[in-house]
Every structure is written in C-alpha cells, then in structure tokens.
Amino acid sequence: MKTLVIYYSAQNHTRTIAEKIAKNLGADLYEITPEIPYSEEDLDWMSPNARCLKEHDDESLRDIKLVNTEIENWDGYERVIICYPIWWGIAAWAVNSFIKTKNFGNKIVIPVAVSHSSPLDESGKLLEKDAGSGEWKEGIRFYQDASDDEIKTWTDSL
What we know:
The chain is α/β, with parallel strands linked by helices. It contains five helices and seven strands. β1 (3-7), α1 and β2 form a beta-alpha-beta unit. The mean pLDDT is 93.
C-alpha cells in the first residue's frame, strides 16, 4: 500500500516520530510548513503574549498560511498518516489549515498525535470533519519520547 506520512512539528518531537513511522513503512514524508514559523516565544503558552495562546483564545487567528500544500503524486497514495502535536486537546492549527486544502477521496487516513501529556481525545475526529472525505481510522497518540520499539509495534500492526 503506497503510504504518505504528513507531519507538522513545532519542536521536532513530531518530526522524529513521523520519520520513524515513514522508515518503518517505507513511506514518503511531507512536512506542513507555516509561512511564519512558530518561534520558541510563540510556543510559550505560559506567556500572555505567546502567538499560540492568542490563536487559542481567538479562533479567527487559527487560519495559518502555509508555504505549500501541493503534494506530488497525491492521487497515487492509498494511505495517509497525519502526525501532529496536540495543542489544547486538538491538532496544532497548521494541521487543520492543511487538511482543509486536500481531497482525501477514498484514501485511508490515520491520525497520529504526539504529546507529552495530552491524549488523542477528539483531535482525529475534528480533523476528519474538517477534511470531509477519506476513510478515517482510529488514531493513536505517542508520547513525544516514544521508543523505536513502541513505534515499530504500531507500524507492524498496520
């Protein structure tokens, strides 16, 4: 099954997990990249001036402009795994912005959340709703420091 692993990673935790998943599955990788990257200060949710906090409090700020949304040979992928960090119980905003640009058609789509403490919760279901297409499967949440064995056990189960 031709697989694409799409990921957004603000602090490289999700990138590491996505790369391991792609390697285990022999899949291609695609990185979601905001036009204005998030700095360390932007991600300091304890600061009242943090960009992520402002976006959390004002949903109108969550439409994140992306560098690119085109994926070469998109129609050739049968399975898409979407890896993302959890922000306040949902996928990071850049992921939602990306999802809305794609027609997932008959693709199998699997959400993979990466977090130190937050569960998967409804994040995958919300992405499915935003996508409006695709055959979405139950997702999984990995801790940001998941072991190679944990990731391999999951990829082997697919």
